[in-house]
Amino acid sequence: MKKILSDKNKILASGLLVALSTLVSCKKLIEIPANPPTQITREQVFADSATTISAVAGVFSYTPGGHGIPYSDGLFTAATSLSGHEVFYTNSNGDNGQFYNYRITPINEELEQLWAMPYAEIYHVNDVLAGITDNSNLSASFVKQITGEMKVVRAFCYFNMVNLFGGVPLITTTDYSVNAQMPRASVDAIYQQILTDLDDAVKKLPEAYPSSGHVRPNLYTAIALQAKVNLYQERWQAAYNEADSVIKSGLYDITTTPLSDVFLEGSAEGIWQVPIQNQYAGSGDANQFYPYSSDATPNYIVTDSLLTQFEAGDQRFSNWVGVNVVNGDNVYFPAKYKDLQPTSPATYFMLLRLGEMYLIRAEAAAQLGHLEQALADVNILRNRAGLGNSTANLASQTAVLAAVRKERRTELCFEFGNRWFDVNRTSTDNKYPLNGQAAVVLANWKPDFGLYPLPQSQLQLNTHLSQNPGYN
């Protein structure tokens, strides 16, 4: 894949990031001066399309320092995989183990990053939107394109935030003096903002990607995220229609990319992928999960409850789960990302992919009573993985939903909290099998554990915030 920007534009983007990204190390939610000294002014940043696209590049970068697309250190995947009991933490260092045992304290250092990193990205997005709005230096078509892209990114950030923390401060401006004291918005308000942003993005984005690869969102990136959001909101027909639209677009394919290459540059399955800008190491997920030697005990080992979901001959197991032999025993670890060092072809961070769209369409179809369609979508993924068709009873909605859930566990394991969010979002729906709900499958479970606590540092700095139940 060709790089999005020239070296000159990368330098300009780096300058902007220095000015904007101090939030990650800053203790307050949003406290960034409008024009920090020694930095280029906002007028210069948004003087023309060339300098503006440099600011846009920073939004889509994926770097070890946390700039751009959040969760670049793999922490999001690690925390939610622990909470969903996909993995167990073997190291006694740090606060990671708290996510597995549901004993997360508000002073957990990892929790602070899960809060701060997306807000850094949201600030950056809001700054770009402010910089291009009513800007006579930019063409209307350019502003339309960038506005759509930025709103997809903001919706993506808030979707993950609301599923981790519930209602959070809804920040849509760059006024740090106001933002730093914003109270929590309701969950409904956050979802409404997400859907409003995505609706606008769908109206503004073209079918074609604006640059090589699938880094900057196109129309179907926005629609794919809409499908996921509507699935979580139990808007089954909307979720079905949107996933169906992406599948039938003809832009993506799950049959031409081997499972070993799904997360690499140029994956035909990738709806939204961002390159990893690190010349010294690989992806954050690999550095979290992948052992540095073949006989070492991994920091995160796959739980038996997940291992038993893989059937004999499932190529997802052989390609996406690694194994070390430790003291004569097989010890399994997540291996979707294997790049401890930069690779060729490069590993790209997958945000949305076609496999998930089939599962969204399948689940929505099952909820709508279209059980044959649901199993047909499940079977597409099973066949791609080298398995035969599902044997679920087509006369039972619960049985078909169980088949969808099982396929989500093996297809989407270790990806963006899907397992953790699944057991939370379906816990009150009796159409799903009881053995797939949090209260049954997660040890030491209490209803309050479905959300993480807000970081104590944020509560101390912003007295308008309130803690989630169960963590006071």
- What characterizes the major β-sheet? 2 strands, antiparallel
Q: What radius of gyration results from the CA coordinates?
A: 22 Å
Strand order within the widest sheet?
A: 1-3
Assembly classification: single chain
**Tell me, what is the CATH class of the largest domain?**
Mainly Alpha
Number of helices: 20
What's the end-to-end separation, in Å? 49 Å
Kindly state the percentage of residues in helix: 40-55%
The pLDDT mean sits at: 87
How many domains in all?
A: 2
Shape: globular
β-strand amount: 5-15%
The ordered H/E elements are: HHHHEHHHHHHHEHEHHEEEHHHHHH
CATH architecture of the largest domain: Alpha Horseshoe
Q: Which ranges are low-confidence, i.e. pLDDT below 50, for 5 or more consecutive residues? A: 1-38
Any overview of this molecule?
The protein has 472 residues and is mainly alpha-helical. Helix 7 (140-165) runs parallel beside helix 10 and helix 10 packs antiparallel against helix 11 (236-247). A hairpin with a 2-residue loop joins strand 4 and strand 5 (329-334). The protein has 20 helices and six strands. The chain folds into two domains: 1-352 and 446-472, Alpha Horseshoe (Serine Threonine Protein Phosphatase 5, Tetratricopeptide repeat), CATH 1.25.40.390; 353-445, no CATH class. The chain has a two-stranded antiparallel sheet.
